[in-house]
Amino acid sequence: MGRLAGKVAIVTGAGTGIGQAIAKRLSSEGARVLIDYVGGPEGARETKRAIEQAGGEAEIVAGDVSKMEDVRAIVDTAWNRFGSADVLVNNAGIEHKSDFWDTTEEEYDRVMAVNLRGAFFLSQAFVRRLRAEKKPGRIVNISSVHEDMVFPGFSTYCCSKGGMRMMMRNLAMELGPLGITVNNVAPGAIITPINKALLEDKPKLNALLNNIPLGRLGTPEDVAGVVAFLVSDDAAYVTGSTFIVDGGLMRNYKEQ
Q: Measured between alpha carbons, how far is 172 from 184 in angstroms, rounded to an integer?
């Protein structure tokens, strides 16, 4: 029996990258997992297949966290399929590169809608269910080192992640009396599809690696292990904190 036996976890953006690794890790520790995805279903099906082949149980739901009807559907699906839920991992996120002076209203709105608004209202829908059942729970937001560290050319992304840090702190205080913990996990440079361009640019990649004391990029599994801890009983007294998973990058970063 794993640390999460009997638990149900909702993981957004679980069809690829970090979200996929989190879904698989939580399942390996005993949780039943609701795999949320947006776009093509192939990645979500791959996640579900991997979980089931390892003896776990999972369900897939298509849901864009920037749309309120989808937000409600994600939570409803967890309750309809599994009878309840205990864990919410707000992993869905996007980034858009543009100089500040060229950033459009549409670009700003889209990044904020997915990264911050989506996490806010999905957490709200989740908490409303928990309150109605007088049940404790765990919320983990996949933030970024850029909730604190500058990232020129990505001002919208940084604003969304900075907002996520303050949201987490506020919700930890507000939801603590309900037995609901709220924490952030802040990855640094991780090997995921979102970093494809970086991985193919050897000079830029080498410059980045020189800034990482551990000398390597992180893996989605590096992030998933911290999430598994935070949603388990091992972290029962942990709330209101950001856990940085970056190989030391933030402590050694120098803008080139």
A: 10
219: three-class secondary structure by DSSP: coil
d(CA 150, CA 139) in angstroms, rounded, equals 25
Handedness of CA 14, 17, 20, 25 (dihedral sign): negative
Task: Name the CATH superfamily, with its identifier, for domain 8-191+220-244.
Answer: NAD(P)-binding Rossmann-like Domain (3.40.50.720)
Catalytic residues: 157
Residue 47's Cβ-side half-sphere holds a number of Cα atoms within 13 Å equal to 32
Where residue 219 falls (left for φ over 0; alpha for ψ -120 to 50; beta otherwise) is: beta
Q: Is the pTM of this model over 0.85?
A: yes
Determine phi and psi for 193, rounding to 5 degrees: -55, -30
* Sheet with strand 137-142: strands edge to edge: 58-62, 32-37, 8-11, 87-90, 137-142, 180-187, 242-245
Per-residue pLDDT of the chain in tens (256 residues, 90 and over written 9): 799 999 999 999 999 999 999 999 999 999 999 999 999 999 999 999 999 999 999 999 999 999 999 999 999 999 999 999 999 999 999 999 999 999 999 999 999 999 999 999 999 999 999 999 999 999 999 999 999 999 999 999 999 999 999 999 999 999 999 999 999 999 999 998 777 778 888 998 999 899 999 999 999 999 999 999 999 999 999 999 999 999 999 998 765 5
